[in-house]
Amino acid sequence: MTTTTFARTSASPTARVPIADDRAMLKAAAELTRDLNAPRPSVYWADFVASAVLGYAALGVAIVAGPLWLTLAAGVVAMLALYRGMSFIHELTHVKHSALPGFRLGYNVLIGVPMLVPSFMYEGVHNLHHARTRYGTSEDPEYLPLALMKPWSLPLFVLIAALAPVALILRYGVLSPLSLVVPGLRRAVVERYSALAINPHFRRRMPEGEAAKQWNRIETACAVWAMSLIALVATGSISPRAFAIMMIVASAVAVVNQLRTLVAHLWENDGEPMTVTAQYLDSVNVPPPATLPALWAPVGLRYHALHHLLPGLPYHALGEAHRRLSAVLDQDSPYYKANYAGMPGLVAKIARSTMLPR
Predict the structure, then answer these.
(1) Contact 59/249 with Cβ under 8 angstroms?
(2) pLDDT tens-digit series, residues 138-160
(3) How far apart are CA 267 and CA 248, in angstroms?
(4) Which of 130, 229, 291, 338 has the most other CB atoms within 10 Å of its CB?
(5) Per-residue pLDDT tens digits for 110-129
(6) DSSP secondary-structure letter at 174?
(7) Cβ atoms < 10 Å from Cβ of 192
(8) Using alpha carbons only, what angle is made at residue 163 by residues 161 and 169, rounded to the nearest 5 degrees?
(9) Which residues make beta-bridge pairs with 315?
(10) Is the pTM above the cut of 0.85?
């Protein structure tokens, strides 16, 4: 779902110098990873199913646990595991479905519908973020020049994500059924409230043909689940405590994901088209030896800059691709300029950018 509009500082009077493509880096990235492009279904399924099972089991423990410490510990495990499971929505937009038969269905059954983040909220949206002429422009659904905005935009950007679970229940439990009977509401729901986008000006197109049929089936399942959840809470079938824990865990998933989004790019582009190398340098890798990114940037998201170089590479191959490129590229290659140590330094870097006079 889209966020609210954030205030921006005035544009810098000094025009940015365009960054030319580094041919050596692009060539090495393409040639050294040709054998890594095939996704491994066994890895995808094992990782995804284990994440979902662990997440729901831990959530159950958090709900029934007596001691507060056990509730908190189980809640953290549930949040991290379900967040990892939800992150596979990103892979769905890049991997050919014929290479992973049934994975979209599996995602929607185990994560998409229960967490009200179905696959269609990212499919048909995220690919626009990777379009060479759209990245960082007003037509990019996943880009905001946060580094050029007011300082208070950053905490607002993160905190607003905490409301996502409530917004999703309203989106599917209230707006979905109403959109079937209220003229004009259906188009508004699809265009404005059916995408995991951060650009408030983005409007997605109405689905057509087979995509529309698939969308309707999945959205119907989400609507039934959201309305059932509302009814179960209203009738007391789900206790206030259990519902509160569920919502807190879901909210924590959204906040951690928003923090990860905050440091996925440097957000320094002011709307102009960028070369592939410029897009890479505006993106972020957090490679080993850092260990915490494995938790807050799971399923290959710690190699986000590399992913923008090689968007078709499956998540389990990104680590090997990074090692290969690091072994052959000269130290003056721009490849290393997108590598960072961790989240705190990145947040500080972006925050400092918002405070610069413009």
Answers:
(1) yes
(2) 999 999 999 999 999 999 999 99
(3) 29
(4) 338
(5) 999 999 999 999 999 999 99
(6) I
(7) 15
(8) 120
(9) none
(10) yes
